[in-house]
Prior knowledge:
Elements: H1 11-21, H2 25-47, H3 50-66, H4 77-98, H5 110-113, H6 119-135, H7 138-149, H8 154-161, H9 165-182, H10 184-188
Helix pairs in contact: 1-2, 2-3, 2-4, 3-4, 7-9, 8-9
Amino acid sequence: MPNHRGYPASNSDAELVRRLRKGEPAAFRRLVDEYAQYLFGLAFRLVGNSADAEDILQETYTGAFRGLGSFRGQSSIKTWLTQILLRQAARHHRVRARRKVISMDVDLAAADRRSVPSATGMVDVQMDVEAAIGALSPAHREVIVFRELKGLSYDEIATVLGVPQGTVESRLFRARRELRELLREYLSHE
């Protein structure tokens, strides 16, 4: 039965955690094999580049290994790993903000390229949409990625982020409004 934090760990999750706590290398390989693609995709969507996404993924696994003792089975391993990844991504954004590094280069000249009626034009549009998502605040980017790109429900997003569902809904509303503004040239030509 689900609790307020999400679905409890399955029997296979509990067994995997037991094996991880015993230090079985095969268990760690299984953890990586089972969740690496999902976690890397999420990290990439949150930070916008492969190198940083790989760093965040590595830190996520390191954090999970260190925090095995704190895993109580009140959520699935996937939810637990996602929460660790989100904390790592937030730390990444804080470090970048402190260094005053621009989080994503937005190519304004790409707006002129969008009129090319070809596959290249579609790639440009996709790049511009990704740049617009990258320009959102981390809180808005998270909910857009979870809802629109990963297909999570409002309840699942609330569980992963540890916030009320109403907060997810309001963040998503604001994020969509901000994206519409960032992409208004594309939307006005449809």
